[in-house]
Every structure is written in structure tokens, then in C-alpha cells.
Amino acid sequence: MACTRKTLKMWRDVQGDSWLHLSVQPKVAGDPVTFASNASWEPADGSDENWPGTVLTPGPKRKKINAPGAYVIRVRVDFQGSERSSACVRAKIIKPDGTEHHKPYCGEVSGKAGDRIRRVTITIKTLGGRAA
User: Fold this and answer.
1) What digits encode the pLDDT tens for the residues 31-86?
2) Does some domain include residue 106?
3) How many domains does the chain have?
4) How far apart (Å, rounded) are the C-alpha atoms in residues 127 and 15?
5) Of the candidates 66, 37, 72, 65, the residue with the CA atom closest to the CA atom of residue 51
6) pTM for this one?
7) N or C: which terminus of the chain carries fewer CB neighbours within 10 A?
8) Domain for residue 92, yes or no?
9) What are the residues whose beta carbons fall under 8 Å from the beta carbon of 107, sequence distance 6 or more?
10) Per residue in 68-87, is it b (16+ CB within 10 Å) or e — as a string?
11) Are the beta carbons of 31 and 69 closer than 8 angstroms?
12) Predicted confidence (pLDDT) at residue 132 exceeds the cutoff of 70
């Protein structure tokens, strides 16, 4: 799947009991990891979770999506190598029947040590969910 430079992904009308799959990986499979990453899961009810890079890389981190609900996922990537490199934030939603909800997401971010932290934001709204 080709990655985009867009750092915002919105999914709407997601079925309850679906699963989010989220990972952060080097752009080229097999390349060394030259970044630190983490993510926050921020549901509208305020029961936030923080996920360290160790569950995102290689990933995927899996999280059940309850309905009704609205969620924001904030992914941060901090490049640490002296050479410019790229990472891909990959996400997809798997419905209860095992099929994908719309298209998966792949967002590419790039940087090197000393650059500002790169961010990707994902929003999910379930069927019958409130706006995040």
C-alpha cells in the first residue's frame, strides 16, 4: 500500500466491536528503526491510554472499538538518527466479520535528530457515536 503525506485520517460509521490495528514502522521493511514513537488513545469518555513504541513497532497494537463512541488517536514520531529517514504510521479497522472498514491508512513522516516531533492524528466515530 502506498503511503500518503497526509497526517490526518478520519473514519466514520465504524461498527462496534471492530478492532483498530496500529503500527509505526520504517518506510522500507528491514531498515533499522531510527525513531522513537508513542501514541495516545483518547476516547470521548476521558479514559485515555498511552501506548509506548514497543507495542507500535513492529506492531500492530490492537484495540477494541466500542459503540457508541468517538476516539482520537495521536501518534508521535521522534527521529533520532543523524541521516534523514522515514517512518510509516499504518492503521486499519477490522470489522467483527473480519473484513476491513473502508481503506487502511498509511501516513509517511520523515525527519532526523533535532527535528520537531512528527504527529499523525486519527479519529474514529462509531455508528451512533458522539463527535470527538
Assistant:
1) 999 999 999 999 999 999 999 999 999 999 999 999 999 999 999 999 999 999 99
2) yes
3) 1
4) 6
5) 37
6) 0.93
7) N
8) yes
9) 3, 4, 5, 6, 7, 9, 88, 89, 120
10) ebbbebbbbbbbeeeeebbb
11) no
12) no
For 22-32, b/e burial (b = at least 16 CB within 10 A) is bbbbbeeeeee
Q: What is the mean pLDDT of residues 106-121?
A: 96
Residue 44 included in any domain: no
Sheet holding 35-43, edge to edge: 8-14, 118-126, 70-79, 35-43, 49-52
Written as nine digits, the cell of 106 is: 498509511
Q: Which secondary structure element, helix H or strand E, spans residue 21, and what is its range? A: strand 18-26
Nearest 5°: CA angle at 51, between 74 and 116?
A: 50
Q: Which domain holds residue 4?
A: 1-33+80-114
User: Does residue 63 belong to any structural domain of this protein?
Assistant: no
Which three cell numbers mark 11? Answer: 473514519
